[in-house]
Specification:
With about 350 residues, this protein is α/β, with parallel strands linked by helices. About 50% of the residues lie in helices and about 10% in strands.
């Protein structure tokens, strides 16, 4: 697959949340012509009138080359490439609507972080079924909080594809002097790291909410990375991916940053809050709350132990008592650190 990208070519961005807005801004700042799909004509009109997204990253101004639309056909048809930035739970449904509009050769990159909520499968598998031609599919993931990317703060990320030309195309498309893009062929590892690190961020938020210290956070992040690595390897991914930007890099920033909604949700949950209240108040999707179910289910299918992920699932969805779940975690049998 070879695509020559030019500044005048139209890039379709599907999703107008904070990350979608940051990506539209990033592309627009390079002079790219961007069609930006929003869920609702009122929001599209507001963006086109104000050159800002009033709901997310409201201080970020878009270039004149960024145009919003609530019409999927207008965004997808004629696009040189497509960037999907919807919540993970919406990827399958939106992809089904896009499929009849998408040319067979159009490259598609997925920026959503999670697994398919109905089947516990990798999202690129779902896109391959909906779109065909899996060689033109890629996934981008890394320590990329939208609040910082949209301010031009130096950041790094990874774009992975089974096709080297596809990965190279998206590397060139997104790379700027302040946004460094690396390539990989490990689509499995990059996707699983992106989904599972959100679960570990909730666990870190829970410990902060309980008043635990830095030692506890360090333990959770380190053992969380061990859990993620076991799952990545069991699913056919590469262990080195877990040590890179899509793995350890994204894990660290999501577990520690003030911008992390998953960490913030865990903190509120420890203090008696609920998922419904948090999402209603912030208008943000907590991807880790869904991922703790899908990642746990996939781990069980593969025979992989993920006790931290199970703890988060039990507390968020199973009505588990947090103190008892933590006590049970520390009562697990002692073992060697690198025991599989």
């Amino acid at each position: 697959m070879v695509v020559s990208s030019g500044a005048q070519a139209q890039i379709g961005v599907i999703g107008a949340g904070s990350w979608g807005s940051a990506i539209a801004w990033l592309l627009g700042e390079q002079g790219r012509h961007v069609r930006f799909w929003t869920h609702g004509a009122d929001l599209a009109e507001a963006i086109n009138t104000q050159h800002q997204n009033p709901r997310f990253l409201a201080q970020t101004r878009f270039a004149q080359t960024v145009v919003a639309s609530a019409d999927l056909a207008e965004v997808v048809s004629g696009a040189e490439s497509l960037v999907m930035v919807t919540p993970s739970s919406a990827v399958s449904e939106i992809a089904q609507k896009i499929a009849p509009l998408l040319a067979a050769t159009t490259p598609v990159v997925l920026l959503s972080k999670g697994l398919d909520f109905t089947s516990d499968r990798l999202l690129l598998e779902i896109l391959a079924e909906r779109f065909g031609h899996p060689e033109r599919l890629a996934v981008l993931s890394g320590p990329n909080h939208a609040e910082e990317v949209s301010r031009g703060i130096p950041s790094g990320t990874v774009v992975a594809s089974s096709d080297a030309d596809c990965a190279d195309y998206f590397q060139r498309l997104f790379a700027t002097p302040n946004f460094r893009v690396y390539t990989s062929d490990d689509t499995v590892g990059v996707q699983l790291c992106g989904a599972a690190k959100n679960v570990m961020a909730i666990a870190c938020g829970l410990t902060v909410g309980l008043g635990y210290g830095d030692n506890t956070l360090a333990m959770i992040m380190t053992r969380g990375l061990a859990e993620i690595s076991r799952l990545v390897i069991a699913c056919g991914g590469q262990q080195q991916t877990c040590m890179g930007l899509a793995g350890m890099g994204d894990l660290v920033v999501t577990c520690t940053s003030v911008h992390s909604r998953n960490r913030a949700f865990g903190l509120e949950l420890a203090q008696g809050g609920s998922l419904e209240d948090y999402q209603s108040r912030t208008q943000m999707v907590v991807e880790g709350a869904l991922a703790c179910r899908t990642v746990s289910a996939l781990a069980q299918q593969k025979g992989v132990e993920m006790p931290l992920c199970e703890l988060v699932r039990a507390v968020v969805w199973g009505g588990g008592n947090l103190d008892k779940e933590i006590a049970a975690l520390f009562q697990r049998r002692l073992k060697a650190e690198y025991e599989s």
